[in-house]
Amino acid sequence: RPAGSENTEVEMLYERVEMELGSFYDEKLLPPTQNRVLVNAYFLMENTGSKDESMQVVFPSRSAPICRKELSHGERYTVYDILQESFQVIVDGNIVPLSIVKLPFGDCQDFEWIAFDANFPVGKQVLIKVSYEMQTFLIDVAQEINYILETGSGWKGTIRRGYVILKFPYT
User: Fold this and answer.
1) pLDDT per residue as tens digits for the range 4-31
2) Rounded Cα distance, 87 and 83, in Å
3) Would you say 2 and 59 are in contact if contact means Cβ atoms under 8 Å apart?
4) Contact at 8 Å (CB) between 114 and 64?
5) I need a surface site. Which of 55, 57, 62, 169 has the fewest CB within 10 A?
């Protein structure tokens, strides 16, 4: 979404989010085998306005829009954290520099976002690919994997087509 959700003539034509569940091994942890989710998200954007737009685009740096999660007595589940160092954003085939900005979101007054600059020429489709890893350091009986979809509402109009694809390491 555009930083600050300012008015824009840029539409999201297509969104495809692929989440692949896997595992990793770290002998310093107990148990040493932990879960990991690889995320690749593709966004096809188009400026439908009458002038080119350049803006800072932001992407959530955490997988849930909450500042603090309180669990009821006895409630346990695994939450996946985004590894910020794994973030990579490619705009029209070029890796772009990233920064962190703090903006309000959900219950958070200073939610951290991954920010990058993007140009949207009039009438040209721009492909943005966001890749990152999420992992957990404890595995409980129940697993919770989050992906924030509502941030797409900052663009003009509605998302024309969207897919969320989950890939599991077993049938």
Assistant:
1) 456 899 999 999 999 998 876 777 766 6
2) 7
3) no
4) no
5) 169
Q: What's the CA gap between 169 and 42, in Å, rounded?
A: 22
Strand partners, 78: 143
CA gap 122, 88 in Å, rounded? 25
Give the other-Cβ count within 10 Å of 128's Cβ.
Answer: 20
Rounded to whole angstroms, the Cα distance separating 20 from 38 reads 5
Q: How many CB atoms lie within 10 A of CB 136?
A: 18
| Structure letter (DSSP) for residue 3 | G
Which stretch of 60-64, 68-72, 86-90, 108-112 has the lowest confidence by average pLDDT? Answer: 68-72
**Cα(55)–Cα(8) distance, integer angstroms:** 9
Backbone angles phi and psi of 3, in degrees to 5: -60, 135
| Token digits of residue 108 | 């958070």
Tell me: pLDDT of 86 over 70. yes
Kindly state the greatest CA–CA separation across the chain.
57
Q: What is the pTM of this model?
A: 0.83
Give the pLDDT score at 161. Answer: 92
How far apart are the C-alpha atoms of 148 and 169, rounded to whole Å? 23
Is 81's pLDDT higher than 80? no
Residue 39 near residue 96, CB atoms below 8 Å: no
Report yes or no: 69 and 151 within 8 Å, Cβ to Cβ. Answer: no
